[in-house]
Every structure is written in C-alpha cells, then in structure tokens.
C-alpha cells in the first residue's frame, strides 16, 4: 500500500517536472524564432535630475511572444542566459539602443540624453565583448560618452581582474558604467573601490518602503553616502511617489527613475 502510494507520488512529480521542462523548451524555441523574426523591441524609461529634467533613458527589452502575451524580461532573460541566447539577444539590444541614441541626435530636446543598457553576466564575460561594443559604436555612430552599461553585483564579483580589465577598455572610449540593483548582491566595499564605476542604482526594493521601513531608509541613505564618499553618482530606481522622491532628495539623491516620472514606453512615445 505504502509502496504504491510512493510510486504514485513519484509519477505525479515526474509529470509536473515534465510539464515544466516542456514549457521551458517551448519558450526557448519561441525565443529563437523571435530572434530570427525581429520579435523584440526596446522600451525607454526616463531618468531625471533633481529638478525633473530628463537626462537619459534606460533601454528595457520587451518580448511579444508569438501567438501569446508579452512576457516579462524577469522571466525570459534568465532563460536566455541559461541557453546562451542572451549573446545574440544582448548584441541586438546594444545595437538597437545605439541606433536610438543616434536618432535622438537630430533633435535638440533629446541630443544630450544618455542611454543606459542592461548587460547580462554571460554577455559581459564573452572574450569578444569589448570588440563587440566598439564595433556597434563604430557601425551606428553612437557617442560612447552617452552610453552607460548597467551591470549587476554578481557579475562584477566573479572574476574581478577580468571584469576590471574589460571595464577599463570600454571606459577608455568614454563608456560609463552603472551598478544596477545595488544593495541586493554581495559586493564588498573593497570591490566597489576598485571598480571603475560611474553610478550606483539604489534597488527599487529599498525605495518601495523607504518612508515606512527604517531599515530600507537606512540602506538608501548609506548608499547615497557611499556614492558621495567614492565620488559616484547615485540614482534611485522604482520611485513611484513624490514623498519617496522628496525623502531621497533630502538625503542627497540627485537622479531618479520610476513610474512617478514615466513608465517604460516605446521610442515614439518617448
Ligand atoms: P532593471 O534593469 O533593474 O530595470 C528596472 C525594472 O523596474 C524594469 O522592469 C522597469 O520597468 C521597472 N520599473 C521602473 N520603474 C518602476 C517603478 O516605479 N515601480 C516598479 N514597480 N517598477 C519599475 P522590466 O522592464 O520588467 O525589467 C526587469 C529586469 O529585466 C531589468 O531590471 C533587467 O534586469 C532585465 N532586463 C530588461 N531589459 C534587459 C536587457 O535588454 N538586457 C538584459 N540583460 N536584461 C534586461
Ligand atoms: Mg537596469
Ligand atoms: Mg535595477
Ligand atoms: Mg533588476
């Protein structure tokens, strides 16, 4: 009796596992298809200074899955990373963002804007990453001084020497670096001091409850102080209310991104 039940449990588990695996295999196939058929787009979200003026944008990838709904990047980016598709996808993002940047040159209200581009770990660690970025810049004519690559802490901590070399090679050309989701990873202060960063992005998880959770408020203030000490810009992401902005501004924050200032929108809307 017990044995039979056990076997059934295992069979049930297998079935569920198989369903999960099938769903992933199908999503991977759809990702491949969309890479071939130009099924990805970029949205742009404003980044503002402390007087509310737009100073730049972050490019955010959007995927309209074939005969389905939009899938969140937090779902398909990890899969693209695991399967290696992120290399092709990341190259497309970089090129599309650079083309957009160049098209902003022709209008005085957008000609000064910077473009922040998310770079995943696997993409950054490609031996040819530096060459890839430089080629895209050359091909598109984008101004490297207006490009900012957003990296995450986990990416920076692994293989620190190579990371620093890669960053220096790109910084030499004028490209900037932001540390995304700062405070959620494991980077130590010793790392932070060595990395040629330009900006820290306070993760939205600390911004969300910054007015009600004293721990989050303390973390946000610490990051602002750290940025000041290390000579780095600090931008708060996920700012949704004027009260959050005011609190952060009071503690020295000079740059903001979040629904309060604008949601990610298409290039035309932007
Ligand atoms: P991220 O780089 O930290 O981007 C910020 C995320 O917060 C975006 O989600 C944005 O839409 C969302 N957001 C902005 N303001 C607010 C706000 O006020 N409230 C709330 N609740 N959310 C806000 P999205 O577009 O879904 O992207 C999720 C993540 O996917 C990104 O986090 C980034 O890690 C990754 N991602 C997006 N595009 C790319 C890409 O082109 N390449 C790579 N490698 N990763 C990407
Ligand atoms: Mg980002
Ligand atoms: Mg972030
Ligand atoms: Mg994130």
From TrEMBL:
It comes from the Bacteria. The lineage of its organism: Bacteria, Pseudomonadati, Pseudomonadota, Betaproteobacteria, Burkholderiales. This is EAL domain-containing protein. Residues 24-270 form the EAL domain.
